């Protein structure tokens, strides 16, 4: 692959600040972030989970082809691999919390996996909420930033970040025990899909890994997501196709290879069947609107 053919830029925690704790955790105020933050108006990915709380600011936040308004008291959630970009019309104020998956796992706490939080789910609509009662949340964010800047122990940072995430989860109003129990198999399916979709695109692979019959997995997906398990797989592959077509400099052949398709012809048929456009047509129309 040519060196000049670039994929979507991937931003690591170690690149955003010299103060990142062991390259796995960061907490800071949006107004104090380095200039590079506001310069990330071009599309990029993160290797970490992120929460951005805007107490002030105006603009647009684009996440995987969906536009969200940046407004007062809006909170955005990003998970590793999502492609996003900012367009600010007013300098933002607020807080940023950035956590690598390893940070929570290193605490060895039961149910501390970040994927358990509903706002770190896989549906685009779960990327933003607007909260009304933020007095305590603001105070806890401020305390977390202060503890981080003072070099507090990871356990303290973990507990404070848990407190913040649990407050948001409570407000989110989708985290009852019944909801979590009902959705867990589908969530585990989506987690496996995120890991294996480039190589495994058959429903049977995922149902075996989950210990479910294929029909059971299909029924769960239909009930929770409104689509079959096969459609969920297609949607994930298609999202990656779109990401690379719009946000990378890879040519069609390189994208075909990157995504594990046998040849260009099959890739083009697959893409057109799902979108009604050839990859070339989608790239041309998508870049005109960027």
Automatic annotation (TrEMBL):
Keywords: DNA-binding, Transcription, Transcription regulation. Residues 187-285 form the HTH araC/xylS-type domain. InterPro entries: AraC-bd (IPR003313), Homeodomain-like_sf (IPR009057), HTH-like (IPR037923), HTH_AraC (IPR018060), RmlC-like_jellyroll (IPR014710), Tscrpt_reg_AraC-type_HTH (IPR020449). The keyword Transcription applies. Gene3D superfamilies: Homeodomain-like, Jelly Rolls. The keyword Transcription regulation applies. GO terms for molecular function: DNA-binding transcription factor activity; sequence-specific DNA binding. It comes from the Bacteria. SUPFAM superfamilies: Homeodomain-like (SSF46689), Regulatory protein AraC (SSF51215). PANTHER family: ARAC-FAMILY TRANSCRIPTIONAL REGULATOR, TRANSCRIPTIONAL REGULATORY PROTEIN. This is AraC family transcriptional regulator.
């Amino acid at each position: 692959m040519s060196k000049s053919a670039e994929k979507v830029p991937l931003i690591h925690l170690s690149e955003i600040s010299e103060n990142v704790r062991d390259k796995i955790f960061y907490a800071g105020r949006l107004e104090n972030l380095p200039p590079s933050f506001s310069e990330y108006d071009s599309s990029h990915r993160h290797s970490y989970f992120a929460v951005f709380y805007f107490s002030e600011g105006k603009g647009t936040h684009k996440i995987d082809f969906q536009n969200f308004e940046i407004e007062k008291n809006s909170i955005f959630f990003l998970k590793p691999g999502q492609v996003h970009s900012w367009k600010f019309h007013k300098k933002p104020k607020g807080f940023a919390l950035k956590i690598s998956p390893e940070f929570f796992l290193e605490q060895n706490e039961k149910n501390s996996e970040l994927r358990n939080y509903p706002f770190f789910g896989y549906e685009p609509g779960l990327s933003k909420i607007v909260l009304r009662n933020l007095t305590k949340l603001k105070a806890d964010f401020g305390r977390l930033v202060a503890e981080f800047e003072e070099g507090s122990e990871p356990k303290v940072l973990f507990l404070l970040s848990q407190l913040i995430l649990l407050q948001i989860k409570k407000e989110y109003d989708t985290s009852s025990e019944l909801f979590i129990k009902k959705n867990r198999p589908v969530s585990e399916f989506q987690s496996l899909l995120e890991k294996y979709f480039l190589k495994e695109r058959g429903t049977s692979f995922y149902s075996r890994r989950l210990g479910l019959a294929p029909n059971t997995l299909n029924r769960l997906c239909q009930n929770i997501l409104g689509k079959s398990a096969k459609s969920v797989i297609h949607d994930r592959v298609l999202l990656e196709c779109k990401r690379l077509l719009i946000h990378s400099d890879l040519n069609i052949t390189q994208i075909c290879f990157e995504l594990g398709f046998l040849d260009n012809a099959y890739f083009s048929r697959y893409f057109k069947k799902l979108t009604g456009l050839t990859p070339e047509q989608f790239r041309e129309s998508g870049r005109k609107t960027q």
